[in-house]
Amino acid sequence: MNFSLARLARPAAIAALATLPAFASSAPASDYPNRPIQIVVPYVAGGSVDAVARTLAQALSERLGQSVVVENRSGAGSNIGSNYVAQSAADGYTLLLISPGNAINVSLYESMPYDMRTDLAPVAIVGNAPGILLVNPAFPANTLSQFVDMAKATPGKLNFGSGGSGSSEHLAGEMFKSVAGIDLVHIPYKGGAAAMSDVLAGRVEAAFTNQANVIGQIKAGTIKVLAVAADKRSELLPDVPTFAEQGYPAQKVSVWWGIAAPAGTPEPILDQLSAAILAAGESESMRTRLEQMGAQPMRTTRQEATAFVEEEIVRWGETVRSSGAKVN
User: pTM to 2 decimals?
Assistant: First the structure.
């Protein structure tokens, strides 16, 4: 996979390495790993991020010959768990499951406890699932153009739910408001499941989410999907056109998952982790689990992962600024 941005230079990370305590890299890379590895998920258990982490942990354990355990450290839109890893010893034994929130928060929060660009080193991006616009089955619009026409005819009347202010679902809605020139009302919930529940019940008209979050409803046919925010149609939704096919090529949104380590982790350890993750991505268990979630695998080098995260930081930053969304 090729990305347009060059690999980031991280002078702050290099400087930080010199100040790490002696135990941070006391184990030589040739001895790695010689004890259990921890993957921190910065969200509560049960979501797509958690599911990917647990599947990857099992696959990595088989390849590295050590237990790989998952720990959930939720709070502050992923900042608590992410900061925990950023401040951990740079020895390859504490890793972070990263996702769009890590890129969004760079611009969303006025004050961040860690720096995504210099305190963490992306190792790999392992999978993604395309964003979608869904509505209640009884909603009058059956196409994206009909939805836009309704929004333009009644500005500020149609609403969309999300898992919370500043979430990728919220910002996907803000992005579409901008590209389509429409006015929708955002209704934030404490989690995506609550938002989906109200869409299914007809209390909210629409939601911008990703297909991994509603795979069950898609298979059961209990929701109506108007557009897919990807370059091509989803295999799960072959009859649903993309936003681009319907005149909005700028609306490209997906949820993605990857692994990062504390900045300053020795290069041989990062290379070993990268190789193990690439091999895990080829495993039947990993491919099957991603497919069950409506997701697709991604195989990236460390350099590609770093470039991918930077592109996401820049792209979401533009949406955050245009929407005016902020979290203290």
Answer: 0.84
